[in-house]
Please model this.
Amino acid sequence: MQKSENQIPAAPETDEGYNFAYLDEQTKRMIRRCILKAVAVPGYQVPFGGREMPLPYGWGTGGMQVTASIIGLDDTLKVIDQGADDTTNAVNIRRFFARTAAVDTTEVTDEASIVQTRHRVPEDPMTEDQILVYQVPQPEPLRSLEPREIECRKMHAYKEYGLMQVSLYEDIARFGEIATSYSYPVMVNDRYLMSPTPIPKFDNPKMDGFPALQLFGAGREKRIYAIPPYTKVKSLDFDDHPFQIQQWEQNCALCGAEETFLDEVILDDRGGKMYVCSDSHFCARRREEGHSGSLPDSAAAAYAAAVGAQEQAVRGEREQ
Amino acid sequence: MNSASPLLRVNNLSHAFGNLLACSDISFELHSGEVLGVVGESGSGKTTLLNCLSARLMPTNGIVEYDLRDRGLTDIYALSEPERRFLLRTDWGVVMQNPRDGLRMGVSAGGNVGERLMAVGARHYGEIRGEAESWLSKVEMDLGRIDDAPKHFSGGMQQRLQIARNLVTKPRLIFMDEPTGGLDVSVQARLLDLLRGLVRELKLSAIIVTHDLAVARLLADRLMVMKDGKVVETGLTDQVLDDPHHPYTQLLVSSVLQV
Model:
């Protein structure tokens, strides 16, 4: 299970046909103005003139526009999808910026200056020098409860958030506990109710007082919002049903980590399964450091070989 | 009873939709603990009047003043919008003709009753649920249905749930628009009985819009008869119904079927 390097080797060549980072300069300025406003009013959804991106809505167009408008030549970009660096969405967005902006890309959280993410906050701590960009499918936390946009905006403006509490009440009435496990609503800076995007509620506590700037881009809904560094982020709850994060009885089967967000992986059709870290870089680093989980060595080797073969195939494709 | 200062005072209220004058020059006072019935045929401006009074439709002319708990008689349209919305969900209640407009059909009965509590800052699940249960039993609902959504309820149950949902913050004034519309007579009778009990017990003031004179006679202390946007007759309920003066009121009273 040796991974020689984390840097992606065959970076695609820069395409000179596009402006730096794909978007034109005026668009990037417009988005930067919206980002400034979003940072000034933490948690407030700033409308922006979302552009067509060369991939469908729902694949991260909002996050990409935010990244495109803040990225510079000396930046290093990491892209994750559900915690993994090697899924289609992450690989393609990383290649997109390598091609249109000629930036370095990495899978190492520490090395990245910008991390674009879909549905996870990295397990490794981030610093003030980094920016975390979220891809947001639905920025409006009240949408499923209040279909009228005007009414939603008034509720935000007047801080009328009782309705969000009703949805948590419904959870307890139906399931005996707050069953919402992702996209768990938070109050930002004691003022705005915010959807933290569909990150698991496991990651909610990380957002509170987070040292890195967090930016959220929703492409289809054309909204940008932000949490500046060290801002108070509180998950909603009831006094007698306090906020809780997910817990697992197992550790990661590959690296043995105890306090990470685990994905369930089905192994066969007889009920066999294992739990592995969803943050692929975090897991791989721990394995390199010599940690190992409950998975027998032979199985781990087979798994590593399979992953290696996959990477070979991907690399081969790139070289063509 | 404080007879000096009314709970609600309306002065020369008019509302026009373009050229159509829906309410014209209406003035009255409502005192604490009083139930005012507004009767009249369809299209006489009753609902428009109610919307103007309950801060949901700004009248073209005239003033609506309400006795706020902290600053006395105040023009409600001079309040800021958040203050008006706060008033609507705390000190006031609005029972809609169609429960679909007044309830969240996909949220459980308990959630519907608890919403107002949570809107004013209640954050203890057990207490909210306890309060919801107590109000549901006050409106004679089966507690076994507290976790069912109102879309699965009968019309009468939906109406009772709507009443519970409005009363949970102990409002002083409730507006009702045809509270018994669309219900069959036996259910109507029970609902009226319930309303009468609650109004007396909680010393509520209420403005009830209805075209059903029986409802007006049962619930209202005073009656206001409207025709073509104007108030044609006012007085004590018995007086208006037993000795109508205006020709239209006479017509209205005589058109009720005597069984």
Remarks:
- Chain A has a mean pLDDT of 90.
- The radius of gyration of chain A is 20 Å.
- Chain A is about 30% helix and 15% strand.
